[in-house]
Design brief:
Number of strands: 9
Bound molecules: zinc ion
Strand order of the largest sheet: 3-2-1-4
Number of helices: 10
Low-confidence stretches: 157-188
Largest sheet: 4 strands, mixed
Structural class: alpha/beta
Mean pLDDT: 82
Order of helices and strands: HEEEHHHEHHEEHEEHEHH
CATH architecture of the largest domain: Alpha-Beta Complex
Length: 290
């Protein structure tokens, strides 16, 4: 993990923990609701205008850290801007999230560069652009003479092959032949096998937090018997759309252990994941727990 990644994660978590302009304006000129069903993110934006300028903005966002941080950053950026400038900046940010190439944003938008790492994960891009799409819908509706608008991520139908893309990306080097590779070594002693499985699972990264599932405490149990491995795991939140992706990554990681012949991956919600008690000390300090 580079220094920049660390710094970026810090910026995201800081906005997540202290969302700017949180709340709801009772006398709003523009009200726009947004939802990202891929992740369960929901938000409501309220804007008060003075002429064509955003005088005040409030946002109420429920969802993952990416959507909340991006919403918080967005409210800071558009405050005091004209609607056309806000629109322009929203389009610029969206374009940079959806296209390859480095982020190049004006100085007052530099916090948003922290979301660059999200570009690796198509599902998370939707989390990052939700607030901006909702803003654009709101401005458009206002121009049509309506004060209310709503936006649902995915209605543009951008990534039909999302899951496949992600699964593919997340299991690099997985051979189609799986466990039938030749020269399978004998099953190592049980005290080593658990460790070997744990080490393999450490290569599985939760895309939202960008940390491995073992240190996050998402692995609840590992059972090894001869060549068969059973893993019980959970996810950081029940609304997490990345369940199948993470399961695929776990399977992929186990497949790469030469002696593993049979894999069983079970998802459980009991007990619910709690980073305060389940994550490693190192992860807790990285998450700012707090
Ligand atoms: Zn999200």
């Amino acid at each position: 993990m580079s220094l920049t990644d660390d710094l970026y994660r810090e910026i995201i978590l800081e906005h997540f923990k202290n969302p700017r302009n949180h709340g709801r304006l009772t006398a709003a000129d523009i009200t726009a609701q947004g939802a990202n069903p891929f992740c369960g993110d929901e938000l409501e934006l309220t804007l008060a205008l003075q002429g064509d300028t955003v005088k005040e903005v409030r946002a109420e966002c429920k969802g993952c850290s990416i959507s909340q941080a991006s919403t918080s950053m967005m409210t800071e950026v558009i405050q005091g801007k004209t609607l056309s400038t806000a629109e322009e900046l929203a389009k610029k940010f969206k374009k940079m999230m959806l296209e390859n190439g480095p982020m190049d944003l004006p100085p007052d938008m530099e916090d948003l560069e922290s979301l660059e790492g999200v570009k690796k994960y198509p599902v998370r891009i939707k989390c990052a652009i939700l607030a901006w799409n909702t803003l654009l819908e709101g401005i458009e509706a206002y121009r049509r003479g309506q004060g209310k608008a709503s936006h649902v991520e995915g209605e543009e139908g951008a990534h039909p092959d999302l899951t496949q893309q992600l699964t593919h990306e997340s299991v690099p080097g997985t051979k189609g032949t799986g466990n039938s590779a030749v020269g399978v070594p004998s099953v190592p002693g049980t005290q080593d096998t658990q460790e070997e499985v744990r080490a393999a699972l450490k290569t599985v990264i939760d895309p939202e937090l960008n940390l491995n599932v073992v240190d996050l405490g998402l692995i609840y149990g590992i059972e090894v018997q001869e060549g068969s491995v059973k893993v019980n795991h959970t996810l950081t939140s029940p609304g997490c759309p990345l369940g199948p992706v993470i399961k695929g990554q776990i399977q992929g990681a186990l497949t790469r252990i030469p002696w593993v012949k049979e894999i069983q991956v079970n998802l459980t919600w009991i007990p619910p994941w709690d980073p305060h008690t389940m994550a490693s000390e190192e992860v807790k300090s990285e998450l700012g727990i707090w």
